[in-house]
Design a protein that fits this description.
heterotrimer; A alpha/beta (about 500); B alpha/beta (about 400); C mainly beta (about 110); A: alpha/beta; 5-stranded parallel sheet; 14 helices; about 20% strand; B: about 400 residues; alpha/beta; globular
Amino acid sequence: MNARHVVVVGAGPAGLSAAAAAAERGAAVTLLDAADQLGGQYWRHLPAERAGDDEAVLHHGWKTFQQLQATLEKSPSVEIVRQAQVWSLETAGTATGSQDAAAALQVLVGEVDGPDRRALTLAPDALVLATGAHDRTLPFPGWTLPGVFTAGAAQALAKGERIAVGQRVVVAGAGPFLLPVASSLSQAGARVAAVIEAGTPSSLAAGWLSKPWQLVGAAHKSGELFGYLTHQLRGRIPYRTARAVIEAHGGDRVEAVTIAELDRRWAPIPGTEEQIACDAVCVSHGFTPRLELAIAVGAALSADRFVVVDPAQRTSVRAVFAAGEITGIGGVDAALVEGRIAGHVAAGGDHRDRALGTALRDRLRTTAFAHRIEAAHGIRPGWTGWLRPDTIVCRCEETTLAAVHHAVAATDSRSLRSTKLSTRAGLGICQARICGRSVETLLAEPTDSTEPPITAAPGPGSDRRPIVTPVRLGELAALAGVLVVIDPPSTSTPVPAPATPPPLES
Amino acid sequence: MSRLTADVIVVGAGIVGAACARSLAATGARVVVVDRGPAAGGTSSAGEGNLLVSDKGPGPELDLALHAAQAWERTAAELDDELGPAFPSVEYEPKGGLVVTSSAAGGAALLTFAETQRAAGVRTVPVDGDGAREYEPQLSPEITTGVFYSQDAQVQPVNATEALLASARRRGATVLTHRAVTGALTSKGSIVGVLTTQDRISAPVVLNCAGPWAGAVAASLGVQLPVRPRRGMVLVTTRMPHLIFHKVYDGDYVAATQSADTSLQTSSVVECTAGGTVLIGSSREQIGFDDRLRIAVLAELAAKALRLFPFLADASVMRAYGGYRPYMPDHLPVIGADPRLPGLFHATGHEGAGIGLSVSTADLITALVTGTTPPLDPAPFALTRTSLHTEQVA
Amino acid sequence: MTPTPVDPSRDPAHPRESALITITLDGREVIGRSGQTVAGMMLAAGIQQWRRTSVDAAPRGVFCGIGVCFDCLVTINGLRDVRACLRRARDGDVVVAQHDRLPATPVQHPDPS
């Protein structure tokens, strides 16, 4: 009997762990990652020609990464495809309501955005999505100035390039992940002027201190956090809560930021502003899961838009699994555990198998961690109070807040699609990856419009992107005649209209 | 459940419903527009915004398109005046269209077709390959024949729909979104209103403008209407230097729009948008309401676009979107009264031409509803036409 | 000067020194090390902005650093729309900043009839 073919997309902690578990269970595994090295964003590291003899000092769990990488590279049943950009996922099966969607991945292999990429089509027996997340940065006046980075950019440049993004840096936003960023910057020689955390002391207390036994339970994670905290104290980096960067100043680049105190809703409190001089600011208000493939395959999403999985990491679509940050922001321990379960079950195992050891119990603990992050650091609606009418909300198309409000008022429409098309917000090359959720929030704010707000609307919202990453027209044309059109079901009888308009992306 | 009274209920807040609502409201009628989703949420936001005469042979649809070409010029100016510069622009651009072909047989067919159009009142400029490249310098050297159509134009379809609705509201119309029509109110065999998921609306006239979902709306009102969805996909590139100046079509496009073939058909339509992106359409498939991405379709669109513009090979495609055209088995829209249920009118089945034909459809419907003289003969668009007899609608 | 490469002699990670490479940005030579990304080379050389936006002609450089925001787009060796933060630089790469303007109102052809 042939081994089950399991494709894992994403080689961060969840994907590496899934690939290893699937191979251990006897599957033939293909591990795909867009980058030219394994590790994902979490273990982003120096390229081989610049590898550090003591790179472990820059990372947490570096040994785990090295072990996973070595295991996968040695395994004869694992094929690792680096520089593999999955640009679409096609489903077959019947037209509507099918939960049995066999998936075909379209992949381009080669230098990212480069010439001469090779086309690859994969139709595995099971698919594990471990596509991770990227920073969510809320807009603020001046956030388009050079010198404003996401916190993830500062991390990537520090770990992958050994560059400090500035010499005097403000780290701002929300979440425990600001701390490792500050730590990396200090290690790279930058002076961190302050860490500005939007969470209020009471929400931080509610998130982190009301359930102290959970902190003990998620031992690795809390150890990591306390490590960062003591590092901050030792380095005397001011950690200031209930504050936000509400403006970046400068001509052609950042020269200072204004911070202000926030109320419980994250609305800036007038009169509390102060300026901090800096040459870089790194901002992250949380994470946005990379949902493109999960949405393309038809996996159900939760109301807060993560992929819904069962205890075996199964999505709502048969033979499609999800692990890591796309199922909830839980950190590296959760990702490793979820990946292990997903890989094992995708390869034909059962999540209650003894081979998984304590994975299931660990999974419960790490899920609680995700809830604590949301309680302590989750984005609160008052942030729109630091926007000004001329603040750019869509970086690609340079759409201002006033333009969005204007379109809503003029058309009486709060439809995301209509507003996008009339203001171009979210229509640029990043395809609303940066602004999409912020624009959704702005449309949901109370105005004079008679239209209902769209927050309650279920579905993928601005996260639906059937073309997952840009593909050259020539690369697409080269597939003509190579790919067979999947025959649709017979249409000799009219297909009944679905109950709601289909979620067309525009 | 709220109770409302009106003179006309328009079902569907897409471009056809919006244009009809505006036109009817201008006569003084109290108009209520209902849609189960947001305005411009279906087909109207899923196309390129074509206002074309070039793809239509002599006949009633061309007459409707020629009427629309004039009506759009006037309507776009009126909307701009009425709504002011603060309103998102309808981006009316009379940029003209260029139909090209690279084969001798294709060229001959194209020129013959253009000659028949010219006789029917279409302005056409036949050109050879070099002439075509004067219009579009980046065109493939393989192109040997072309016809330029100065009357082809475009609008941004969502903004156009929103503008028509805003104008209708200024004339007293009410637009109610996010409520589906669930049934008819009838009296003595006539329709006298509709029930929605939220309202009971009374009106002596109900106008079905639900596009590809018009069949479902008709069914909920108790009649059959043979309108079907015909899926289309469009590719969008990233912003690039401005190198394409008109709408440019592969000569095959004309054949595809006239075809009843249910299998996949693609032919190239390439143009630049005001945002600097390039749109590449379009496919035609009868696969029901199936919105899944089909890579083979996109690949074929890409290959055909490169036959027109080889320089696009390096262009990055950042988005693909699709929608459903409302398709009638005899390729003509249905515009007029439904004799089976007095008071009910339909305005749908425009297939891929609804953006363009919306304004002339509105003029026709308004005349039919108010009993004034129609601007052109409504008979070819009647539900009772012989070409629909096999569909059991008579 | 703002972005600053870590002084190798004081770097606790002790990275190896890779070969020197040279690329050009809009004709200007930028020297870096093999293995750096194009964006990494520019930042390490003190260049913080290269692209200009279409509407305001505002300067942009690196924002997300991981290929999500597309702010850092450049043309490399004639191929447009390459994310500088993801692409490893190669000796001799010719990098040109992208300043994509919005289309002007299209040329209207005179009506033939």
